[in-house]
Known about the structure:
The protein is α+β, with helices and mostly antiparallel strands. The chain folds into four domains: about 5-115, NusA, N-terminal domain (N Utilization Substance Protein A, Chain:P, domain 4, 2-Layer Sandwich), CATH 3.30.1480; about 120-180, CATH 2.40.50.140; about 185-260, GMP Synthetase, Chain A, domain 3 (2-Layer Sandwich), CATH 3.30.300; about 260-370, K homology (KH) domain (GMP Synthetase, Chain A, domain 3, 2-Layer Sandwich), CATH 3.30.300. It has helices at about 5-15, 20-40, 85-115, 185-195, 195-200, 230-235, 240-250, 265-270, 295-300, 305-315, 325-375; strands at about 45-50, 55-65, 75-80, 120-130, 135, 140-145, 160-170, 175-180, 205-210, 215-225, 255-260, 280, 285-290, 320-325. The strands form four sheets. The chain has a five-stranded mixed beta barrel. A three-stranded antiparallel beta sheet has the order 1-2-3. Strands 9-10-11 form a three-stranded mixed beta sheet, with helices on both faces. A hairpin with a 4-residue loop joins strand 4 (about 120-130) and strand 5 (about 135).
Amino acid sequence: MQIPLDSLREVERERGIAFETLLEAIEKALASAYLRMVGADETRGARAVIEREDGNVTVYAQEVEIDPDTEEIEIIKEWEDTPADFGRIAAQTAKQVILQRLREAERDITFGEYSGREGDIVTGIVQQQDNRYTILDLGKAEALMPPQEQIPHERYEHGARLKAYIVEVRKSARGPQIIVSRTHPNLIRRLFELEVPEILDGVVEIKGVAREPGHRSKIAVASNDRNVDPVGACVGSKGARVRMVMNELRGEKIDIIKWTDSIEDFVANALSPAKVTEVRIQDDGQTALVIVPDYQLSLAIGKEGQNARLSARLTGLRVDIKSETQIREEERREASAAAEKESAEGEAGEDSTAEKAGEVAGTSEVVEAEKGEATAGD
């Protein structure tokens, strides 16, 4: 009974699986097959040896004893016991081991290709969708998109091509698990890198992304070259570049905002498309009071507060939006309250002065009376 060593060496050359690794795996599998064959119990062990020169297989039966304290196995006796009809079993076992090792090697190669690629973008074909995952075929591997990483109300039809953002790559018994997302803010960042060469070249920089997947996103961009308009570069000729990103996200609206060092200007820009009259950063440094024309108030706040929310996320500030009329009314009330306070303080001051004058007059009368009494006594 022999194992075809030439076949193992061919596997080593073509698939990169070490010859010795294959032999050791086959030896372990043969020993297990022998024990199943003879119906061994815990007192029996086995060892299979494949000769490295010609592939001959020898099986050794073992009488073993297990230390109850350390659970170490001690071999009491060993003898050769190669079954006469073991050749067919050996051939099948060797084939199974080789196939298993090939699958493991392919999984390791695939894992190596995707390990460390968290943050990259991949294109996949929708294979299937259920309540737990949408599965994308990436070619050599599959990617899993959990429900929380899927855009609400977005349908993934079988065979459709789409791009996704790699969130995590982990190893499992069934091969590498590649977790991808369609909702991650950085998906937009990567899509713009694909469409805008100036971003890839470092001329234009994406400073921040705020996103409500499937509805609207805002990205803040800046230019490292004064001759390049960052917003225009991202929009593209006739809106071609931003339209490509929006199409990939199935119509999600995208506002491209010019980033600036001035926090007041940045907040005003972030509220686009609304026009802003004034931005006042409050004393806490965490809140921006934004004043807009009356007719721009609804636009600045946005549907269900969406524009204000995205602006706050993009700038990192709490954004308090008020109309010019609201501000005038507040300032009028504050001025009125201040005037009333000042008037009240003035009246209180006059009363205090009059009271003091009365006290002085009374004192004078007492003094005069005392003088009169003194004269009469004389």
